[in-house]
User: Fold DUF1048 domain-containing protein from Microbispora corallina.
Amino acid sequence: MTTESNEPKSRYLQHLEIITGPLEDKKRWRQYKARVKRLPENYRIAVEALERYLMHFGPADGAGAMAMYDDLAELFEQSAADGTPIRDIFGDDPVEFAEAFMANYPLGQYRARERHRLAGAIERAAGENPEREDRTKR
Assistant:
């Protein structure tokens, strides 16, 4: 059922991906989960907690999200290999770390767009920046 990247996909696979999403993203997700599972327990717990947070607030599209999760696994694999303490990775505020980490992956991040729209609307309403482009009309 697999096809080479230079071969066209069968109609069946095309229809299946319409319903389930790209099969390559599913493969990458399984690989990511396997990498996380191999981490020492305390690192795995930290990654899984961060993963839950990112699921709610991170990029929603497959490619952007998978790039983020691949980098997350790499960060924790390297940290585990170096013996970096969990608190040295996250700092004092895990939410601040998560937000800074997500900021590197804007693709598909509707929250950044909505924050920009909100700030622009409030600036216009307050008469602070009337020349700012109104992105809500797009």
